Amino acid sequence: MSKKPEKKSDRNKAWKRPRRDRSRLINPEYHLIVAEGEKTEPQYFEGLKNEINNKYPGRIDIHIEGIGQGSNTKALVEKAKDIQSRYDNCFQHIWVVFDKDDFPAEHFNEAVTRCNELSNGEITYHALWSNQCIELWFLLHFSYFDSDLHREEYFPKLTQRLGSEYKKNRDDIYSVLRDHLEDAIQNSKRLMDFHKGEAPANCTPATAVYEIFEKLWVYLK
Questions:
Q1: Between the CA of residue 9 and those of 6, 14, 18, 63, 72, what are the distances in Å?
Q2: d(CA 212, CA 194)
Q3: Which pTM was predicted?
Q4: How confident is the model at residue 36 (pLDDT cuts 50, 70, 90)?
Q5: Taking the CA of residue 22 as centre, how many other CA atoms within 13 Å lie in the half-sphere pointing to its CB?
Q6: Which domains does the chain have, with CATH numbers?
């Protein structure tokens, strides 16, 4: 049945006016997070997913894929592309989470470049890289620092800050860090400014993980 055109006599009636107190509808967004880790990164971002979906059911759909250790940084981006196509290209944002670790500098930089190449007007690939590791992002929740440390040196520092032993695959890491999220964003951006103009592999330390939280901040604040 076709919709009848509005009568001129009805246009100014109160029941036809938009409700000022009616919340504006937000179109759902679809995000894919692909991480090289099997547990640490997926468990952390699962916390982000749960917080958003508990507050705004149906507003955002975050799909998390843990690829597993052994995937080099370039291959991880291509796997993210394959996953996107498997789901009929339904995701508008693909977040590829990877660490520098011991991967060659050229592979690390190329992964970031590849994300930019794959992005277009409909789909955006975001490289959420950390140099050296995602534990840098965790530590930036507590303080700013720009010392070039080996990734294993972050573990005792996190243990001290958390007041309990930090281990990889800790399933409560998102919740215990959540109250300091704004500090982590600001500290990360400060680090990025410090390394402005440098290739990602030369930014030691630095992390781009804050970008997903800035993008989704409307759902978190």
A1: 9, 12, 17, 49, 66
A2: 20
A3: 0.86
A4: confident
A5: 4
A6: 27-220 (3.40.50)
